[in-house]
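User: Quick sanity check before I run a bigger batch. Here is a single chain. Can you write out its predicted 3D structure?
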Amino acid sequence: MHALKKNRPLRRIVLASAATVSGMVLLLSLKPHTNPAPATADSKSPSVSSSSAPSSGATPGTKTAGRSVTGDTVQTRWGPVQVRVTIKSGRLTDVTALQYPQDNPRDQEINSYALPQLRREALAAQSADIDMVSGASYTSTGYRQSLQSALDSAGL
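Assistant: Done. Predicted structure follows.
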């Protein structure tokens, strides 16, 4: 007779309990994706300065490295989203998020990975026709709308 047949019901209970506990331990040991530092409007500049020093110095106020255009502020469910684009020789050279939801730790976590992805997408596409970031639907939509308004204002 098989070891788990009716003559040993206590053994089945112990094995089922052990399997349940093991499954719960494995499930609870999973960790969500996090980046080392949350994205902020100020933290964008160091990443840009490492790739090209002249454009990072010119983005805040001077226009020697390119023309900066600020997009419309888009109200989303979780807060406003606004971007500024830098255009040089008719090409999109930088996109900076000026406003984005950051009122609570969850907003900060979401935007710490969403904003860099949206920036990369925009620079690669050279337009506002970019993919949305999973888990950041509202921010992605606001980002795309603000980016499109900035590109429209710039004549691109």
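The mean pLDDT is 75.

User: Great, the batch can go ahead then.
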